[in-house]
Amino acid sequence: MPLIEDDKPYIAGDEKYWLAFSRVGGIGVVRMRRLFEFFGSLERAWQARTGDFMQAGLEPRLIERVLNFRPKFDPDQEMERLAQLKIELLTLGAPGYPERLGQIDTPPPVLYLQGSLQPQDNLALAVVGTRQATNYGRAATQNICTELAGQGVTIISGLAKGIDTIAHQAALQVGGRTLAVLGSGVDVIYPSENRSLAARITDPAAQNGAIISEYPPGTLPEAANFPPRNRIVSGLSLGVFVVESNIKGGALITVDFAVEQGRDVFALPGSIFNPTSAGVNRLIRQGSARLVTCAEEILEELRPGGMFDPQDRQTQMELSQAGDTDTERQLLKILRQAGEPLHIDEVCRDTQLPTSEVSSLLVMLELKGLVQGMGGMRYGLTRLGN
């Protein structure tokens, strides 16, 4: 259930109070929802008295915590500090907050972000696996993520050693986009050897992606932060691809969240003699994950008729809204006038847009059932687009 319903629009200027309540401790999305619904805005809730909080249903221990914290915290000053650090604040229900993430059971009330989120990040796949990746796991991750990113899929992972790092790097190597979700503040890159990778992701000139966290700047990467982090990794994604994981691997925590959130899970089969594949092989054996060996098998599931049936409510809504942007309409017009499938290079030439943007748009139009890949990087209209 979203925090802000249709009859309660986003209130501009409330961001600093979302930030303030998120720092109190013990006040998550459920209690923020309660405060928002009672007071009408978190600004009024921040200024409330003890009796008001009691009427709103806040527990006595939390009321005491708010009252003790409030004199010590200046929301305006903290917003200025974020601006100085070039950290963007996204609040649940506000423009820019990832819609898919906002629909999970426990979405983070606030997100801290460096870099940028783009509309094409709606087509995203989480890639997770062990820190002790084998040569096989590394090669498979590189191969599959390169292909996916080249087809306009945003790669999401956790910036950890091993599979995470390879997945991010593979996306960047082909000019694709990638999002890294941290279990620390966005200004505390962990592991430290990935600082240069994080800088490439957040480079404002390149627009490669973003570093994201629900934890305030300066938060250290404590072990307790990582399981909650994993719900964001899966929550941002259409599905989760597990490359290598042992029976008790942290990647399996992301899988658990993915199942709870209704995301599909894909797994790369591994050697029966290698313990780093034991967890993945068990997922496949139990039917908890779909066995995949190449990027195309994942892309097939992302298209209409795959994991998102064209008859379901969400896809029907997407189809009815297709072609809303000028760029989408331009692509559809070019394909319609051609009367036959066109190579992506021809589409790029006619639109004068970069390959990465055209590729992303074509994949999104495939998801909406308007465009169909014909093989060999050629695309044509489906009957829905005629």
Can you put this structure into words, describing what you see?
- By secondary structure, this protein is an alpha/beta fold.
- The protein has three domains: 15-84, DNA polymerase, domain 1; 116-302, Rossmann fold; 313-385, Winged helix-like DNA-binding domain superfamily/Winged helix DNA-binding domain (Arc Repressor Mutant, subunit A, Orthogonal Bundle), CATH 1.10.10.10.
- Helices cover 44% and strands 13% of the residues.
- The protein has 18 helices and twelve strands.
- The longest helix has 16 residues, at 135-150.
- The two termini are 37 Å apart.
List the helices and strands and how they pair.
Blueprint: H1 15-24, H2 29-39, H3 42-46, H4 50-55, H5 60-69, H6 75-84, E1 88-91, H7 99-102, E2 110-115, E3 124-128, H8 135-150, E4 154-157, H9 163-173, E5 178-181, H10 195-202, E6 209-213, H11 226-235, E7 239-242, H12 251-260, E8 264-267, H13 278-286, E9 290-291, H14 295-302, H15 313-320, H16 326-338, E10 342-343, H17 344-351, H18 355-367, E11 371-375, E12 378-381
Parallel strand pairs: 3-4, 3-7, 4-5, 5-6, 7-8, 8-9
Antiparallel strand pairs: 1-2, 2-6, 10-12, 11-12
